[in-house]
Amino acid sequence: MAKRKDARVTVILECTGCIRDGVKKVSTGISRYISQKNRHNTPNRLELRKFCPYCYKHTIHGEIKK
Question: Sorted alphabetically, which PANTHER family does this protein's record hold (predicted)?
Fold first, then answer.
């Protein structure tokens, strides 16, 4: 059976602040969140303000490819 294209897809959101700053030497990684979006309502890449434990503040998390 062929898999149909669902409207809801799972996306990974990654901190844009950590990527630009090159992640501080003290931190251990880059903040990532998993979320869902409706492909029909938001065809563009998703960007949400989330808390980054490595930057210690709320930053913009953008959608990345899997």
Answer: 50S RIBOSOMAL PROTEIN L33, CHLOROPLASTIC, LARGE RIBOSOMAL SUBUNIT PROTEIN BL33C
